[in-house]
């Protein structure tokens, strides 16, 4: 697997990353929200024992205990989608096992006892699922998961019942947004049982033009069907986005180039840069790179800027407790430096 | 004298150019608007004969006959403030004598028979006047100007009666504009007998932040008093502008730098660039250069962009009869090229 942020591969233009998440619960142990902190720590121990069974996993992975790490460390893992806010809420009894490349994260005592997650660069659902499945097998050989012959895997929330599988892709859809076609896409996706969400919740969506498309249904359908359905749907969205881009380029060539190049110019020169504006400009520049209009910028830099120019990341990089304006100044400095 | 557009001298930061204009009419010959084209051509001949009396003037100056030159050539001299629209209106009988550096222009058959004009770089009213005065002496030694012992020089319009002298400076006042102090400045200048106008009439003023301050009164006051009054007033405006800049820098350091650097970023990257936006951005960048915030840009490039990025100049440089949008695209290309 390849960390999506550092990905330099140009083949998957529109899909930034593919993600597989499996929800598993331990048999005859109350769900995490019913566990005392002490019981929670026992669960952490059990999962670790089940996972660290050979030298390879011991070398490539390490455990992070949320009760030991600072709020800003936890937030920075959250920004990178390596853990969830649910896990942070349970920080007194929550931990996660992370690989060195930051592509695999096994959350312990999130909503379920085990939430295994693999994030891969590009549009690679099958490969990503196969890796997640292997890790799931390792865990299952040493742990007893709650499983029902009729329903499948039992989870804390019924929306995950069955396969416990949530597959998703992060996709960049600026042209569909510019052409006001996103609500259409959203309706179509909902009708075929898919969900579409923003990168960091609703607010940031329209700015970054980054969306997560994932399967809604986990029950009464096989893992392979979930994957192939999502694959088909995403391929269609990619086609629509490419069509929209071609139309824009045909009808508004200069306007589009103007938007893209100005965005790069502003990112390279701004002295005060609010995050929302930064996301919007990064999206424009990314579109330029994806369309081959801008050639000198590496997409991995744009990926890292999306993640690392959030206020909390900027404070972590420079200093804590800055004023909002000071953060915007430091963000501008950070972005200028990275795009030099 | 130094052509203000090419001026690389950094000493006069805020004043771009100083201009002296002398209005003179020939005795016992009707004012130009009462002349037939044929009579007009005789006036052109007389002024040329009076001026080209030695090898030096013959080598350094040449005559331009408006009835021979194209509309776009005439417009381009207008853009550079070397001739007036009045002269163009009289194009069938109008001419002007121009030096190689384009600092001295002797208009023939404008409102008056002779309108002598010297434009010098920077804040140099005395030197500029002294050169204009010398040329006036040469002309006067060979021509009979209409002169009245009581009033002074007689001119077609009474506003020029007396000295026939209009002295003006072109000055860049972005900070006073940003601080909404321009109406105050305007009132104060009017009260002391000065006029303030925009670079190309009212519309462009607020965008370029370039103003022309000149004496209103020409009658009952000596040439030297006109000059020293204007000098004193302009010095005061310079002080106010510098004060405003210092205040901005103190209270809005990052905002100011942001505005200045973003403007440069946009000028360097835009693909569609309307003239009004271009003027606004050039003013911001000029302010940055004048304040020492931007060091890598030469002011002479900014001067030339103000003049040469007007639509008519862009059409002349690339091709005629482009659509407005195409001009904006070519302007952007021109500006990017110059700022490389």
Distance between the termini of chain A: 29 Å
- Enumerate the spans of chain A where pLDDT stays under 50 for 5 or more consecutive residues: none
Main sheet: strands, sense, barrel of chain A: 8 strands, antiparallel
Judged by helices, strands and strand pairing, the structural class of chain A is alpha+beta
- Counting DSSP E segments of at least 2 residues, the number of strands of chain A comes to 10
* Main β-sheet, spatial strand arrangement of chain A: 2-3-4-5-1-8-10-9
- Helix fraction of chain A by DSSP (H/I, runs of at least 4): 40-55%
| Average pLDDT level of chain A | 92
Oligomer category: homodimer
Using only CA atoms, what is the Rg of chain A? 21 Å
- Protein chains sharing the most extensive interface: A-B, 17 and 17 residues
How would you characterize the overall build of this protein?
The structure is a homodimer of 340-residue chains. The first copy, chain A, contains 14 helices and 10 strands. The two termini of chain A are 29 Å apart. In chain A, helix 1 packs across helix 5, helix 8 packs across helix 11 and helix 10 packs across helix 11. The first copy, chain A, is an alpha+beta fold and 340 residues long. The longest helix of chain A has 29 residues. The model of chain A has no long low-confidence stretch (mean pLDDT 92). An 8-stranded antiparallel sheet of chain A has the order 2-3-4-5-1-8-10-9. Helix content of chain A is 50%, strand content 16%. In chain A, a hairpin with a 3-residue loop joins strand 6 and strand 7.
């Amino acid at each position: 697997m390849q960390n999506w942020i550092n990905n330099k591969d140009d083949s998957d233009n529109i899909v930034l990353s593919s993600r597989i998440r499996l929800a598993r619960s331990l048999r005859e142990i109350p769900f995490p929200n019913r566990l005392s902190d002490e019981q929670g720590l026992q669960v952490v121990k059990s999962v670790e024992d089940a996972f660290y069974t050979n030298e390879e996993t011991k070398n490539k992975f390490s455990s992070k205990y949320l009760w030991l790490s600072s709020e800003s460390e936890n937030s920075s893992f959250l920004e990178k989608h390596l853990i969830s806010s649910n896990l942070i809420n349970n920080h007194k009894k929550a931990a996660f096992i992370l690989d060195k490349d930051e592509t695999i994260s096994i959350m312990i005592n999130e909503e379920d006892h085990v939430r295994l997650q693999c994030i891969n660069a590009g549009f690679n659902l099958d490969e990503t699922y196969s890796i997640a499945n292997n890790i799931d097998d390792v865990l299952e050989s040493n742990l007893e998961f709650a499983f029902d012959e009729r329903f499948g895997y039992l989870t804390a929330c019924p929306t995950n019942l069955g396969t416990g599988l949530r597959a998703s892709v992060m996709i960049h859809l600026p042209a569909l947004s510019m052409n006001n076609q996103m609500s259409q896409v959203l309706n179509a996706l909902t009708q075929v049982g898919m969900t579409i969400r923003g990168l960091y919740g609703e607010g940031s969506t329209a700015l970054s033009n980054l969306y997560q498309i994932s399967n809604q249904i986990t029950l009464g359908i096989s893992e392979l069907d979930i994957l192939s359905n999502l694959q088909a749907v995403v391929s269609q969205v990619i086609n629509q986005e490419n069509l929209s881009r071609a139309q824009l380029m045909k009808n508004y060539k200069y306007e589009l180039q103007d938007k893209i190049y100005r965005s790069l110019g502003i990112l390279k020169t701004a002295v005060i840069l609010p995050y929302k504006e930064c996301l919007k400009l990064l999206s424009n520049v990314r579109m330029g790179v994806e369309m081959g209009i801008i050639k000198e910028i590496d997409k991995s830099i744009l990926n890292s800027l999306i993640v690392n120019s959030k206020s909390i990341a900027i404070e972590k990089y420079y200093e804590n407790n800055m004023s909002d304006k000071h953060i915007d100044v430091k963000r501008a400095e950070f972005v200028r430096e990275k795009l030099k």
